[in-house]
Specification:
The chain is of the alpha+beta class. About 35% of the residues lie in helices and about 25% in strands. The N and C termini lie far apart (about 40 Å).
């Protein structure tokens, strides 16, 4: 049995959907997401994160020595918010004996960076599951909670949900068949530097069907010439299959060629195609 997750509203604690058999195996009665006054919850998790050689960018904000307390967590959250508007959730397990414990934290950012000019492209940004709770299917639960939050938060204004990760297990969870609707598609790679090390990050997008329709309609205004056809073939493959068939890096030159061929402005500032090309460059997807 799967209990339905609830998000939004005034309460600081909302139930997250977890299968009853998983709760039983973990010794929990419930899992809740909290999104307010969370700095006091974060120190045990951040202490563990600091010790891990991973690509999690929260490590940039942590002191290399000394205590990690609520004040450190407050600074981290403030700095994340300064980079881009971000909502961070902590996931708190309720044990069968009535006690509780933070088991993970994850965030949703409203845009790829504060200077990105377009709405409707939320980012499933930071996520950290504490070591004792890995390998239990918890990442998928948290990913679905944030994905559903984006669907509810942006509604008809949603264009695409971005997820980037250098972890192969994250790719598998996000892209397995029929896991999410709309599905996550692999659209390119970026090079992410964390603590002096470059990490290969795979970028995924879950395209809103309505946004795909707007992209296709705009692309069709370029007519039926060879360049327009090449652009449309690539665009359809990008929004239905992704790589290896079609990636986002190749989109701009194809659109520019179709523009020159048809004499139309496909990359007007507020156009659907320009928003997508600009997103890829802002991430930045490099290959």
């Amino acid at each position: 049995m799967l209990k339905i997750a609830k998000t939004g509203g005034r309460s600081n604690s909302r139930a997250v959907a977890v299968r009853s058999e998983s709760l039983e195996a973990l010794g929990w009665s419930a899992l809740h997401a909290e999104d307010r006054h969370i700095a006091v919850r974060l120190p045990p998790l951040l202490q563990e994160l600091r010790l891990e050689p991973c690509a999690h960018s929260w490590r940039h904000h942590l002191p290399t020595s000394g205590a990690v307390d609520a004040s450190v967590a407050e600074v981290l959250l403030d700095e994340e918010e300064a980079v881009r508007p971000t909502k961070t959730f902590v996931y708190v397990a309720k044990r069968l004996d009535g006690s509780d414990e933070i088991v993970a934290a994850a965030s949703v950012s409203e845009r790829i960076k504060s200077s990105f000019p377009y709405e409707g492209f939320p980012v499933l940004a930071r996520c950290y599951v504490r070591p004792n709770y890995r390998g239990r299917g918890l990442y998928g639960v948290i990913l679905r909670h944030r994905f559903e939050y984006c669907l509810q938060r942006w509604g008809d204004e949603l264009r695409a949900i971005h997820l980037g990760s250098g972890d192969t297990s994250v790719w598998w969870v996000a892209t397995r068949l029929e896991a999410f609707s709309p599905p996550f598609l692999h659209i390119g790679h970026e090079d992410l530097e964390v603590a002096g090390t470059i990490h290969d990050v795979r970028d995924l997008l879950a395209f809103s069907p309505a946004y795909v329709q707007r992209l296709v309609r705009q692309g069709q205004t370029a007519g039926n010439g060879p360049a327009a056809k090449a652009m449309m073939d690539h665009l359809r493959a990008l929004t239905t299959e992704g790589l290896p068939k079609a990636g986002i890096v190749a989109l701009r030159p194809l659109v520019e060629a179709a523009e020159a061929e048809a004499g139309v402005d496909l990359l007007a500032e507020e156009s659907p195609l320009n928003r997508l090309v600009t997103l890829g460059e802002a991430i930045p997807v490099v290959r």
